């Protein structure tokens, strides 16, 4: 515990990092460290991005994890082997001996001996409002800025950003694909200032990017579900195809915790949608909101498996025994925690939650916008931060930390048995310049190619 605490203090002090998204702006936590500059999209020698048009092909010379080498009960290294993947109609049809081509007429490509890892998942990002892809803009927010101040700023800023929504969302998708993510969940502003325009713009982008990118949309009442009187717009967003009902700080923003949460859940029930709420509150009101949501799901079977609590900073105010009591209830109701892995003043019980069976996912939140300039769009960086902050690093725990970036899809199970990839898995993966998952997490290793359902969406192979 003291080792992890010292590490958190070091990162907090040495990073000199400001805030990420609403909570980070207001509560002294952030979710990114700028380890490296954004990587430009690799191209072929012709100067054009590489494309694989075949729906049935071989991918040779990819490095797969084959098992752990144990010293007693402790995994001390990872065994690997080179294999050929047969890819057909977006799925992995077979794992073959390396360079084995049963059908010599099929095209084949060379993965260059790079490590094959599951595709990453950026499960909390705001594709619809960003400065990314435009000129550099730093934050000019005075000390003491409140969430109400930020709402007023957004009401002024959003109309200025809307003409660029599609162009910049495309660039953000390029960025996160370059980091290995092909699955995402994007929050999208739904409030009187934006109306449904951001949703329409984002849906247009996602329709164009569908072959290489899957993204759920959360209708997000950024200015308060009750405060901005956004119920009608939220219902229209559900009818227009949004996948989740969003919410925001029901006490500090909406001023009526139960009324706000009840309305959020009711909209979800009315349209058979999931819920993904931004909960930044660290006061006792935040704990009360978590408890109220857990109780609501417990007594409403239709909501089981449909609640995500994003940020959930109130959990950092609980002691170990309180988390131990709450986490099994959350796990039983399949409640998900979406964390940006904040560094700074908050010690989130992410490992404790995962150990108790709670599904913990991660995401970028902001890349660069009026909330934060620090996001890298890199889920491997999030796994690295999680590992630095919350585990004692060894081969096995570092390899397990990858799960926060991949939705808990891992090449090896805890016993060191290969469980991914296997025949009929989606051909969605990333090639990484690393020898194993543990190294990839510890070193935030470079990515060389990203595939989604068999499509090469970023990078190159030979």
Structure write-up:
This protein has two domains: 2-30 and 120-377, TIM Barrel (Alpha-Beta Barrel), CATH 3.20.20.140; 56-118 and 410-459, Roll (Urease, subunit C, domain 1), CATH 2.30.40.10. Helices cover 33% and strands 24% of the residues. It has helices at residues 2-15, 21-27, 147-161, 165-178, 197-209, 231-239, 257-271, 284-298, 320-332, 350-355, 379-390, 395-401, 403-406, 437-443, and strands at 29-30, 56-71, 74-88, 91-97, 108-110, 115-118, 120-125, 181-189, 214-220, 244-248, 274-279, 307-311, 336-339, 343-344, 359-362, 429-432, 447-452, 455-459. The strands form four sheets. The chain has an eight-stranded parallel β-sheet. The chain has a four-stranded mixed β-sheet with strand order 4-3-2-5, with no helix packed on it. A four-stranded antiparallel β-sheet has the order 6-16-17-18, covered by helices on one side. The longest helix has 15 residues, at 147-161. The model is unreliable at 1-48 (pLDDT under 50).
Quick one: CATH class of the largest domain? Alpha Beta
What is the fold-level CATH name, i.e. the topology of the largest domain?
TIM Barrel
Strand order of the largest sheet: 7-8-9-10-11-12-13-15
Q: How many discrete structural domains?
A: 2
Q: Fraction of residues in helices?
A: 25-40%
Number of helices: 14
CATH architecture of the largest domain: Alpha-Beta Barrel
How is the biggest beta sheet arranged? Answer: 8 strands, parallel
Task: Look at the structure and give the mean pLDDT.
Answer: 90
What would the principal axes of the Cα set say about the shape?
globular
Fraction in beta strands: 15-25%
Radius of gyration: 22 Å
By DSSP, the count of extended strands is 18
Structural class: alpha/beta
* N-to-C span: 46 Å
Oligomer: single chain
């Amino acid at each position: 515990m003291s080792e992890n605490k010292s590490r958190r203090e070091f990162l907090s002090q040495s990073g000199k990092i400001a805030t990420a998204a609403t909570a980070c702006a207001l509560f002294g936590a952030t979710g990114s460290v700028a380890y490296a500059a954004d990587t430009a999209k690799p191209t072929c020698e012709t100067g054009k991005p590489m494309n694989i048009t075949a729906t049935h092909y071989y991918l040779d010379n990819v490095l797969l994890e084959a098992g752990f080498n144990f010293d007693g009960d402790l995994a001390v290294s990872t065994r690997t082997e080179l294999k050929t993947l047969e890819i057909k109609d977006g799925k992995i049809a077979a794992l073959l001996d390396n360079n084995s081509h049963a059908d010599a007429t099929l095209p084949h490509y060379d993965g260059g001996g790079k490590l094959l890892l599951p595709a990453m998942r950026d499960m909390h990002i705001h594709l619809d409002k960003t400065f990314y892809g435009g000129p550099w803009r730093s934050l000019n927010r005075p000390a003491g800025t409140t969430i109400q101040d930020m709402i007023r700023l957004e009401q002024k800023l959003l109309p200025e950003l809307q003409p660029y929504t599609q162009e910049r969302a495309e660039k953000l998708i390029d960025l996160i694909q370059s980091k290995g993510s092909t699955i995402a969940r994007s929050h999208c502003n739904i409030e009187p200032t934006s109306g449904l325009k951001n949703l329409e713009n984002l849906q247009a982008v996602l329709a164009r990017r569908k072959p290489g990118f899957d993204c759920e949309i959360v209708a997000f009442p950024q200015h308060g579900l009750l405060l901005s009187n956004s119920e009608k717009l939220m219902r229209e967003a559900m009818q227009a195809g949004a996948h989740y009902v969003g919410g925001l700080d029901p006490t500090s923003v909406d001023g009526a915790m139960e009324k706000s949460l009840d309305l959020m859940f009711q909209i979800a029930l009315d349209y058979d949608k999931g819920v993904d709420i931004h909960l930044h509150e660290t006061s006792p009101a935040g704990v009360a909101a978590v408890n109220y949501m857990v109780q609501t799901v417990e007594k409403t079977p239709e909501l089981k498996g449909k609640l995500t609590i994003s940020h959930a900073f109130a959990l950092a105010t609980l002691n170990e025994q309180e988390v131990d009591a709450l986490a099994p209830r959350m796990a039983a109701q399949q409640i998900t925690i979406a964390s940006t892995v904040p560094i700074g003043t908050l010690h989130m019980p992410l490992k404790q939650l995962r150990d108790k069976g709670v599904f913990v996912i991660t995401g970028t939140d902001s890349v660069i916008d009026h909330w934060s300039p620090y996001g890298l769009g890199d889920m491997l960086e999030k796994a690295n931060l999680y590992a630095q902050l919350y585990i004692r690093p060894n081969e096995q725990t570092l390899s397990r930390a990858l799960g926060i970036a991949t939705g808990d899809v891992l090449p090896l199970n805890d016993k060191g048995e290969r469980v991914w990839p296997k025949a009929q898995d989606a051909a969605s993966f990333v090639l990484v310049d690393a020898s194993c998952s543990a190294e990839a997490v510890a070193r935030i290793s470079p990515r060389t190619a990203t595939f989604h359902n068999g499509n090469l969406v970023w990078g190159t192979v030979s």
